[in-house]
Amino acid sequence: MLSVKNLSKSFDGNTILREISLDVAAGETTVILGPSGSGKSTLLRCLNLLETPELGQLSIEGDTVDFGTDLTDEQVRTIRQHSAMVFQNFNLFPHLTAQQNVALAPVLNGKKSKAEAKKLAGQLLAKVGLEHKADAYPDNLSGGQQQRVAIARALAVAPDYLLFDEPTSALDPELEAEVIQVLMGLAAEKRSLVVVTHNMAFARRVADRIIFLDGGTVAYNGAPAGFFASDHARIQRFLQIFEMTDYKI
Ligand SMILES: Nc1ncnc2c1ncn2[C@@H]1O[C@H](COP(=O)(O)OP(=O)(O)O)[C@@H](O)[C@H]1O
Ligand SMILES: [Mg+2]
Q1: Which intervals hold domain ABC transporter (predicted)?
Q2: At CA 165, angle to CA 159 and CA 169, rounded to 5?
Q3: How confident is the model at residue 247 (pLDDT cuts 50, 70, 90)?
């Protein structure tokens, strides 16, 4: 279980997240939706302490931190080891091959020998359909392939929760589909996924739970069916945008 209580985060005096409370169950796919600027990325970044909230509490798999006082390096490490993040722009190391990108973290964190990490990287690249690209550098991979390497890299640290921040927003529809397929495979395996996305088909078909952020607060938290049928004005306005696109389903 990942649990956030009364979490508040501001930048330069502007409150971006306002006393957010929510639970993310292990083994589920939680999709975070919301207009641009509503705080989705900030919330995701708070979950692995890339941002530090001013107030509130975060618990992941029984490890808890209270914000408002300085966190120790040990607390930060403990919380971070529970999750791995996949970013919109892949963020692969350009000077490393696909396999080296995937193998790096397990070696650096001391969990695997070089040989073990290399073997694991091969297995994870196969899992995302890229065993034939193990020796390719990011520059020689398509965006969809780079993102699949990034997903393999996230899996390599065996995180309890995988955090995705708009993983397909930088991709053409065809490449988006290949990344969505990988995400659907992870969801089918009952991995714990937290996915910020604008892909409404994914949200509707794959999410176990939808969290809709608006103005730094949780405006919806529940099943997809209830979200897509909501008569809440803010949610209807948001959905109307997508009804004018190919995502109409
Ligand atoms: N590091 C930062 N410094 C100052 N303002 C920030 C920073 N990160 C995000 N913001 C602001 O916080 C708000 C929410 O941003 P973000 O979490 O990126 O929203 P979303 O991902 O939903 O589009 C925006 O107004 C953004 O400008
Ligand atoms: Mg964002």
Answers
A1: 2-240
A2: 135
A3: very low
Structural domain harbouring 115: 92-158
**Is residue 132 in some structural domain?**
yes
Q: Is residue 102 part of a domain?
A: yes
Domain count of the chain?
1
DSSP summary character for residue 142: -
Cβ-Cβ contacts under 8 Å for 6 (sequence gap 6 or more): 19, 20, 21, 55, 56, 57
Share of the chain above pLDDT 90, in %: 94
Predicted confidence at residue 245, as pLDDT, reads 43
Q: To test the ligand 1 pocket, which listed residue (17, 20, 38, 41) has its Cβ within 8 A of the most ligand atoms?
A: 41
CA neighbours closer than 13 Å in the CB half-sphere of residue 124? 27
| 113 inside domain | yes
Q: Is the CB of 197 under 6 A from ligand 1?
A: no
